[in-house]
Amino acid sequence: MSPLKFDHTVATKWPTWKKTFELNMEVADKSSATESQKIAILLTHMGQEAIELHKTFDSPKETLAEVIEHFDKRCIPTTNLAVESYKFSKITQPSDKSFDQYLTELKLQAADCNFVCGNNKCKTPYVDRMIIDHIVSHINDTEVQQTLLREKKPLKLADVIQTCRTAEAVKSGQKEMEQETESAAVNEMRKKYKKEKKMKSNARRLKNEEKKSYDCKKCGLHHQKSKCPAYGDQCRNCKG
Q1: Who's near 160: CB < 8 A, 6+ residues apart?
Q2: What's this model's pTM, rounded to 2 decimal places?
Q3: Between the N and C ends of the chain, which has fewer C-beta atoms within 10 Å?
């Protein structure tokens, strides 16, 4: 792992760095290590800046969790929940955005909104409910929207997601079929056009040939093809 740099990017890099460290601790099976050893491993991986910063902490931290919590406060600025909730409410699903892209954006923004019951004894998260309400209000498929609004049972996020994905897949399949049908119709029209063009060209060629006049060897006159006055007559000399 690379040391963590405490610059303007630390707020975005710290969550990923922390998760990677936690996974490394699991892989290395450091569960039996003492808290002091775990803290030492953390600071060693974080680098010299973290070691110096750790010295400035207000009070000694005895557990790894407490030290990480302190770095959370240092690395991640205080969130304005009103602003984050406003951003969540303004998310839309334009026609070029798939449902999964829309859902991912909702989940990522919801993580910054702290959708949790304010009662200290409860603290029940209601993020699923907020995402469901947003989907019902903002999904760009009006048929799916009406289906969800008609549902009498309490909506579950997993069911809502499945309904939206299924509807999107069906519409995508229908669109592909329509495009294939349209393409086949266009090809058929092209073939018909080429055939008609060829027939007209042949007709013009024959017509032009008929209009052409030449010196006839049979009658000795100059006339158009098939206009010979001696056509069908016998030669008076050779009877041919």
Answers
A1: 132, 135, 136, 148
A2: 0.49
A3: C
First-residue to last-residue Cα distance in the chain: 108
Q: How far is CA 110 from CA 14, 92, 114, 141, in A?
A: 19, 14, 7, 22
Helix (H) or strand (E) holding 25: helix 10-27
Closest CA to 115 of 89, 87, 85: 85
What does each C-alpha distance from 210 to 21, 197, 205, 207 come to in angstroms? 92, 20, 9, 5
Nearest-CA neighbor of 127 among 142, 116, 143?
A: 116
Sole residue written with tokens 């073939």: 191
Label residues 104-137 b or e (16+ Cβ within 10 Å = b): ebbeebbeebebeeeeeeeeeeebeebbbebbbe
Grouping H, G, I as helix, E, B as strand and the rest as coil, residue 215 is strand
Please answer whether residues 47 and 4 qualify as being in contact, where contact means their C-beta atoms are separated by less than 8 angstroms.
Answer: yes
Q: What is the CATH number of domain 81-167?
A: 1.10.1200
Tens place of pLDDT per residue across the chain (240 aa): 889 988 888 888 898 999 999 999 988 888 788 888 999 999 999 999 999 988 888 766 678 998 998 998 888 877 788 999 999 999 999 988 999 999 999 999 998 888 887 765 666 678 999 999 999 999 999 999 999 999 999 999 999 999 999 999 999 887 777 666 677 666 778 887 788 778 877 777 776 666 666 667 667 676 666 677 666 666 666 655
Sign of the alpha-carbon dihedral angle for 140, 144, 149, 155 = negative
